[in-house]
């Protein structure tokens, strides 16, 4: 049985999807971009601040499902410019323990919603 996860501490969906879906003990998050949930504005002052907002949005969704980054087993990172990879990776990596970090892929794409530079989704298991 699936349970819809929603929190006001992450941006509301802007289409026909939910922030996350919990099935048994597995959480599937939708991709998060750098929308500040308090202002509904994009945080795109720098790639580091943009990535931090994305990770904070994901943290809020994980928390709403009573999970943490330690429960994350897989991430997908979509970026608009592979030249930003190192900066994105530094911020992303600060949220995980290197010894227990999840598997992931990072893919450069032609475009992302609202023309942001990074979008990240996760799968977590409790």
CATH fold-level name: 60s Ribosomal Protein L30, Chain: A
Shape: globular
CATH architecture: 2-Layer Sandwich
Topology, number of strands: 6
Averaged pLDDT: 97
Task: Summarize it.
The protein has helices at residues 47-64, 85-93, and strands at residues 2-5, 20-23, 26-29, 72-79, 103-108, 118-125. With 126 residues, it is of the alpha+beta class. Helix 1 (47-64) packs parallel to helix 2 (85-93).
Topology:
Blueprint: E1 2-5, E2 20-23, E3 26-29, H1 47-64, E4 72-79, H2 85-93, E5 103-108, E6 118-125
Parallel strand pairs: 4-5
Antiparallel strand pairs: 1-2, 2-3, 3-6, 4-6
Helix pairs in contact: 1-2
Describe the protein in words:
The chain has helices at 47-64, 85-93; strands spanning 2-5, 20-23, 26-29, 72-79, 103-108, 118-125. The chain has 126 residues and is an alpha+beta fold. It has one domain (2-125): 60s Ribosomal Protein L30, Chain: A, CATH 3.30.1330. It has a six-stranded mixed sheet, covered by helices on one side. α1 (47-64) packs parallel to α2. The longest helix is centred in the middle third of the chain and has 18 residues, at 47-64. The radius of gyration is 14 Å and the shape is globular.
């Amino acid at each position: 049985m699936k349970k819809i996860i929603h929190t006001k501490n992450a941006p509301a969906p802007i289409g026909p999807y939910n922030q996350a879906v919990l099935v048994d003990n597995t959480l599937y998050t939708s991709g998060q971009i750098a929308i500040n949930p308090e202002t509904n504005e994009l945080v795109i002052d720098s790639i580091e601040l943009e990535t931090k907002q994305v990770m904070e949005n994901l943290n809020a969704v994980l928390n709403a499902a009573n999970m943490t980054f330690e429960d994350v087993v897989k991430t997908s990172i979509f970026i608009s410019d592979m030249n930003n990879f190192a900066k994105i990776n530094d911020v992303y990596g600060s949220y995980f323990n290197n010894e227990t970090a999840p598997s992931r892929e990072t893919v450069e794409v032609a475009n992302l919603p609202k023309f942001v530079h990074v979008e990240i989704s996760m799968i977590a298991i409790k």
